[in-house]
Design a protein that fits this description.
Layout lengths: L6 E2 L5 H6 L4 E2 L8 H8 L3 H14 L5 H11 L9
Parallel strand pairs: 1-2
Amino acid sequence: MFAGWLYTGSTDLVLLAGALECAGAILAIANLRPELSIRAFEGDGTAQRQLVVAAEEVSGRWPHGLKGAVAARFGTSATARMG
């Protein structure tokens, strides 16, 4: 039996990780939609579906799609160190 801390890095598994009492989730999309990430981890199925949609919307131009969306929402820099 594994006794350590377990985190998911998959947007698709956030709700399940919370239900299984994992330690948490480390998600890039949480930078854009932190409220959905928290609600999904806490068991909100609607938030889980919305989180997956949000991740799919920005995944096409990684990492620029996410950086641009975060910049538009929160006024942060859209500059990416990659790509």
